[in-house]
Amino acid sequence: MQRKGKRGKRKMTEGKADFSLFSFLFPLRRYLELYALFFVQRLKIFLEYRISFLIGASSTFVVQAAGLFSIWAIMRIVPNVVGWSFDQVLLLYGMVTLARSFEHMFADNLWTLGRHHIRDGSFDRFLVRPINPLFHLFADRFNHDGIGNFIIGLVVVIRSSLALQIEWNLEKVVCMVLAALGGGLIFIALNLITCVSAFWIIDSTPITLGVHEWHEFARYPLSMYSSNIKNALTFIIPYGLVSYYPALFVLGRDSSFLAFASPFMGVGLMLLGYALWNVGLRRYGSTGS
User: Fold this and answer.
1) Splitting the chain (289 residues) into consecutive groups of 10 residues, what average pLDDT does each group show?
2) What backbone phi and psi angles, to 5 degrees, belong to 84?
3) CA–CA gap between residue 218 and residue 234 (Å, rounded)
4) How far apart are CA 25 and CA 20, in angstroms?
5) Which of 1, 60, 82, 122 is 20 to 30 A from 151 via CA?
């Protein structure tokens, strides 16, 4: 029995040998094909439980409607927030919602890493299959609620830009696209960085939630906060790069390089998150169940 346990442990260790960054990035075509297969299976689940799908999709609109109403109520009392009008604040809200939708769609499984996969031992299945376990964790669950967030964010951005009569050019369009994609990467990376604590404390949700909720600050202009909070939202928990600085550029208020910094910050945070993920994997010992 002891010999068999050692052999099983050695097999698990061999499965962990392929956790380098290059194993996650290459071959890219193979992982895209695998993700498509995972997505098709997830789509079958949606079609099987259509009522659940509709409830989930509609609940997203209700939550976002509540958020928009709160901004409307605040701005009705205070029509001008440190020089920002209602439509300008609405632009910030839409940009944050648009970026967050990517995390909601593609990386929602990070929230359940500890309390679901590690606690009951089901995380072991990610280690015994011949694909990168982090990719497997992402591909295992596509959250359709994020589609609703994407639609709402896009509609709010378009509506506010029309109300503000923004004169669009190539630079502004590129800025908005990079802010959305880079912002989504920042959301995913910060969730990854915090969720790996599950390898030590099991349930990482309080830590992930504590960092994630800072995005609420980015729905308003950073200039209304103290310098410490503004710097934290720019360089430490950089949700400000998702909305505030790109919005300044689009509105013609500032041409700082920070308007285009979200993709670079997102990649840097993802590399940090992936390094911490590998440390956590070496710490992981399974539940034995």
Assistant:
1) 43 44 63 88 72 71 86 89 94 97 94 89 89 92 88 95 95 97 98 96 93 96 96 97 97 92 97 96 75
2) -110, 130
3) 10
4) 9
5) 82
Task: Provide the token pair at 15.
Answer: 């499965």
Whether 52 is covered by a domain: the verdict is yes
3 domain-assigned:
no
Smallest CA-to-CA distance from 12 within 246, 265, 233, 287 is with 287
Does 2 reside within a domain?
Answer: no
- Kindly report the pTM of this predicted structure: 0.86
Distance in angstroms (rounded) separating the CA atoms of residues 130 and 5: 21
Unique residue bearing structure tokens 């700082």: 256
Degrees, nearest 5: CA angle 117-128-283 = 60
Structural domain for 122, as ranges: 15-283
- Token match 């990517």: residue? 102
Number of C-beta neighbours around residue 82 at 10 A: 11
Amino acid (one-letter) located at 154: L
* Number of structural domains in the chain: 1
Pull the structure tokens for residue 29.
């075509």
